[in-house]
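Quiz preparation item.
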């Protein structure tokens, strides 16, 4: 099954024509901020916009460091059917008296950031100033997991989901659903109530997996977890069944009903989501929460790598050119960012990058082979800690200092969210393959920290969120378009 149908391709082409027409005299770049649930998409977008608009410390973002950005401001987003990204609310949550991280994204939203800049070239600089609009889309990470469904039949998806649900991590969470599955006869007709109950138990299993951090690859369909405007819709009333290979669904059977609804979900939910948003991206940053997976162990690392590989196989990578644009827009630069690097001392950042590269090696090689420029880096869009050295038993330990979130624990101590602590998170293994095999599980421990405190509750011009390598990420993603 191809990713796009003829009708999809036609619609994508029409959208691109409209984009090109709208960009005449006002060039625009669509930046995809991609990541699974809790990878930090909302925080990244908020920090990116705030740092550029408020003139934050962006020493490695060449256009800013060279003083060529004359003005940065927000404009109404171009898609009238998509809600605006709640930027001001997220900033208020981060800098308020009871500072906290923004809530997870529950629906799609978008915003447009426009930069007036001074071109680098002598001729261009004397002709006039430049302008670039950057369209940024935020969406629930759970929805991203749906993209691989475009290439899978109901039967293939059922077998994949059932196999995952029988793994050691997921089987205890799937007990009620599996018990109900054993009572069903997929080849026979069944009342609607059987389908509804099966879907409800399947949804409860998916929710338990997400809450326990048990598996990403076992979570689709994403709308079961974040239904958005589809809450209560018949489109969400299906579930995997144990169906035999090499056979087709008997007419009027429970199997046929489930397969029909799965196909409708892919047709009416997944394909439009891909066509209207992901097929139109120019640049892409993939946020990877490798530290949480390292905490959880080798199965979690393998699962995260597998889920990201499946998702990234759906994107159109390759160099941007007029010839390539004839067959659809392509993503010519991809940044894989290992997020939350502020939970580690900087001496481990290069190891975090190496481990992340090893975890997504296949997806990374595929993008490079297609001709995209690819980079991997460890970053923190908002830095919540600072670094120090603590002496213990004659040893110098590289530590981080911050306020752990209430409820976080280390060594049997539970934090209340108000005290600043110096914490030694451990050292990541030098060998990335050893880390993927679980060598880091007992040697490192990462906790969540509250957002940093600002001396001025409302940052003014020139003050913004501290970060780790956000400027380097911006330079890779945007600098060539501001030359």
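Solution:
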């Amino acid at each position: 099954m191809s990713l796009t149908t003829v009708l999809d391709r036609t619609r994508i082409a029409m959208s691109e024509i409209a984009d090109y027409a709208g960009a005449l005299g006002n060039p625009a770049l669509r930046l995809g901020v991609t990541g699974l649930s809790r990878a930090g998409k909302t925080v990244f977008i908020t920090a990116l916009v705030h740092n550029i608009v408020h003139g934050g410390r962006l020493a490695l973002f060449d256009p800013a460091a060279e003083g060529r950005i004359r003005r940065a401001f927000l404009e109404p987003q171009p898609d009238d059917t998509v809600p605006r990204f709640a930027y001001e609310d997220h900033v208020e949550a981060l800098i308020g008296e009871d500072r906290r991280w923004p809530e997870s994204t529950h629906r799609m939203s978008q915003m447009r950031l426009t930069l007036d800049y001074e071109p680098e070239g002598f001729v261009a600089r004397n002709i006039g100033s430049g302008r670039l609009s950057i369209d940024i889309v935020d969406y629930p990470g759970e929805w991203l997991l749906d993209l691989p469904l475009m290439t899978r039949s109901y039967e293939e998806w059922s077998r994949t989901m059932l196999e995952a649900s029988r793994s050691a991590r997921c089987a205890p969470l799937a007990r009620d659903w599996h018990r109900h599955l054993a009572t069903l006869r997929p080849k026979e007709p069944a009342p609607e109530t059987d389908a509804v109950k099966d879907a409800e138990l399947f949804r409860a299993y998916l929710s338990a997996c997400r809450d326990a951090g048990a598996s990403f690859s076992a979570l689709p369909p994403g709308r079961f977890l974040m239904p958005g405007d589809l809450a209560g819709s018949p489109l969400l009333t299906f579930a995997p069944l144990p169906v035999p290979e090499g056979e087709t669904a008997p007419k009027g059977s429970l199997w046929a009903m489930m397969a029909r609804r799965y196909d409708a979900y892919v047709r009416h939910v997944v394909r439009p989501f891909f066509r209207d948003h992901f097929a139109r991206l120019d640049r892409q940053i993939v946020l990877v929460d490798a530290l949480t997976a390292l905490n959880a162990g080798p199965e979690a690392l393998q699962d995260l790598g597998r889920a990201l590989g499946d998702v990234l196989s759906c994107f159109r990578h390759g160099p941007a050119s007029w010839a390539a644009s004839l067959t659809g827009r392509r993503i010519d630069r991809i940044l894989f960012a290992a997020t939350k690097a502020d939970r580690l001392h900087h001496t481990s950042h290069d190891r975090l990058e190496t481990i992340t590269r090893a975890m997504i090696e296949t997806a990374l090689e595929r993008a490079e082979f297609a001709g995209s420029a690819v980079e991997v880096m460890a970053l923190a869009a908002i830095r919540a800690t600072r670094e120090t050295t603590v002496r213990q038993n004659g040893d110098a330990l590289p530590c981080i200092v911050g306020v752990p979130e209430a409820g976080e624990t280390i060594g049997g101590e539970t934090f209340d969210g108000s005290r600043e602590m110096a914490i030694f998170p451990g050292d990541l293994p030098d060998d990335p393959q050893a880390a993927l095999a679980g060598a880091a599980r007992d040697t490192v421990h990462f906790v969540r920290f509250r957002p940093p405190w600002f001396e001025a509750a409302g940052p003014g011009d020139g003050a913004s969120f501290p970060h780790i390598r956000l400027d380097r990420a911006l330079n890779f993603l945007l600098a060539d378009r501001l030359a």
